[in-house]
Amino acid sequence: MGCTPSMLLDHKSRRRDSTGSQEAALAKVAPTPVCNKAVQAAKAPRASLESDGFSIQLSSKKDSYVSQMGNNFATQLHIKRISGSSSGSPGARAGRRSSLALTPEDEPLVDVANRSPPPAHIPNAMLYTPPEPLELLCVFPERASRVCAAACSAVARAGGEARSVRSARDALDALRRDSEAKLPHVIVVDARQPQTLDAPLLARAIRGTKNTQHIILIAIVKKSAYLKDDFVVLPYLDAGFNRVMVETLSATAWCAEVLQCRAAGASARAQVAAVAALAAAVDRCRDLVAVTDDQQRILLANKSWCRVLGWRGDEGPRPLSETAGGEAMRQASSGARDWEAPVTLRRRAAPDPILLPCRGAAIGLTKSTSHIVFVCEQTHAVETERGRGSLHSIRRGSLDVRSVASDGLRRTSLAKLQGLPLEAPITKVISLLSAATEGAPPSTVACIERAVDMLRTSELYSPQMRDDPKMRVEDPVATDLIGALLSQGPTNTLSSRRSSNDSTVVRSQTNRTNIKHKTTGQLRELLDTALSWDFEIFRLEDMTRGRPLAHLGLALMGGRFDICAALECDERTLLHWLTIIETNYHSGNTYHNSTHAADVLQAVAYFLEKDRLKSVLEPLEAAAALLAAAAHDVDHPGTSSAFLCNARHPLAVLYNDVSVLESHHAALTFKITLNDNRVNIFKNLDRDTYKQVRHNVIDMILATEMTKHFEHLAKFVNVFYAKSSGSKEDNMHTDEPLALDTTALSLPENVILVKRMMIKCADVSNASRPQKFAFEWARRIAEEYFLQTDEEKAKDLPVVMPMFDRATCSIPRSQIGFIDYIIIDMMEAWAAFIDMPELVNHARSNHARWRELDEAGVSTLADVWRALGHSSIHGQLQAAQPTAEE
Ligand SMILES: Nc1ncnc2c1ncn2[C@@H]1O[C@@H]2COP(=O)(O)O[C@H]2[C@H]1O
Which catalytic residues are annotated (predicted)? Predict the structure, then answer.
């Protein structure tokens, strides 16, 4: 402990020690104009003095050599309040607010009750020690001192043991050599021959030795000296003696003294033991505890206090104000009995103070306060840092007091908040990072501090364009596309351009030809290849006359994955579900139609075949992933959420401009499904299973929102690549290979990240497909963007992606930007996770081809297809393939 329990026991005597004189001691006890008079009064025995409302009485126990046991004051100083007006001036009384000056009558009762310290309650059981035979040590320089012999024989008669030594050195040796159990209860020191034995010096040395607080020290003085001066005892008491006794050879006198010493000794030992026990308890507290004297000088500081504030273990009493500030200090000074208020504590190794909730209490055995207890709650954040043993670390980790306004209310509520057992993981991360700065080189500290500053923002996952020369695509097309993908809300409105549907109205299936789910031989052959990465999706689109989803869905969901078993539904219901979902895709959209849904479904199915996912996902989770993929863009209007917001479309209004399309896709999926028993693939699931599947489907559909792209990617990377050297996000931007760590898969929350990543990658997997597919998808999305721009211009709406104008837009550049900013990082992370390098290989090779085209001056859609030697890949495919009906 910084300050020890022994300081608690004798802080009053230390006060005297520091002044070196009784006058100074008295002056300190009464630090008012009255004190000088008190000193004079002390010199004039039995003087009583009244002034300015005070009565000071000094009484000297001259007639008894036995002063009060266990009390270092042979002379007792009483400072009384005078309640009447007879002796104090009214002005003086009215003007003072100190606890000494104010009379109890001047204050409201409640206030008085709260200001007088509670009687310190020490349970009686704590103060009991079993009686022991008395151990006496006599220190008498004279070889055959008769006084010494009288004392020893009295101890023997009382059933105790006595020994004697002749010098101060021998006495101290005996104390230091003996184990604690053998320390004497009483030490009698011959103070009659100062030239041979300096008794006060020896007493100080004894009191400076460990565990001697309970030893009763008796100084033997000559009768002549004793009777000469009223204050003869004071230097002895100041030096640490408990009692001053006149030399005597009387066996009776010695016997009485010895018996009193045994009783007093037992009581003193019990008190010390009780204080030691309480100090040990305080030391084991998590909270920061300090006990001060009535002048707020710290007498005891527990281990938490020392550790958190950077105190050494051996510091003497010091003013609390050097370390603490705030409302708590004001409360403590007000004399309140019990209070709760925030305290700011300065730490030695950190510039920023910490703000902690603090409870305090004034303690006193009498009406006046002897001790003040401060218990500062160790908040979780401080404790986390403590775990790192870093004081330095606390600087950034927990509480930023500088940001706290000076008004007390805010500080109080902040302190209360910090007292709550709540802590966000980010707080722990900041604490750990801050701890890592300890002892680190300045450059590392600077890096960590910058990282911590970034972590402190609430926009953790908001992407910022990287300042990477390699990546600096100062291409307005790429900037336009990425900017539009990553931002949501009104930029700067649902088009009925290709659909006049109220999107929340389930489309009737009747306006479509019922699908033939009897597949032709060629279609069967094609569907047999549904689990290859170069699956001919556009051929399927053509063969099924724009209904690829139902056919592929039935083949994959009903066939290979048998989700009917997991969902406990029949294949017919699944077919109906697929059909109605497909019906609710807009066939007029060039990109966001059911072919895109089928493509994403095919990608998810392909991923699910990978060993990593097979081992991680339950059949029901796989089923949910396939359902989510099939439905993830249902009723997509062919325009972006930003467009809907700008157009003040009912969906944007319904979803408050937040995740408009994804919310709609997820909600409509369930509306369609639950609307009709014939399509309700969930109808046989029990409540909990339904809940689980629903949660999974919704979560995955919402994960396709591109504004959250970097959030999902960063979380995935941080979890599954966290253990390689350096930040994985940084690694992603270098050519260093990623080091995969899949141990985190044991946590369900991390499996969620995997499912999100899976559908995200599937959603934009077109850029990682073989070139002929990737280029067709690029054409389709560009066409859809162009149509949106056309509509925005026609309706005088803000143009979300002005660069996507069919007359001027460079398709190669838009694809280069898309791959650079969205695809590569994500595919690298996912490819490594599921062991599918072709994802990255295709993306890179597509990127290279787009670059070639760009460098060749190819720009518009028409240019691209001309350069590729045909008007459209899809057109080429269409011409070559038979349809499903053939
Ligand atoms: N090849 C591509 N080029 C440019 N943008 C794309 C490409 N593929 C997908 N996207 C965009 O990425 C988005 C992913 O979510 P959506 O399907 O809602 O809408 C998609 C398009 O806006």
Answer: 592
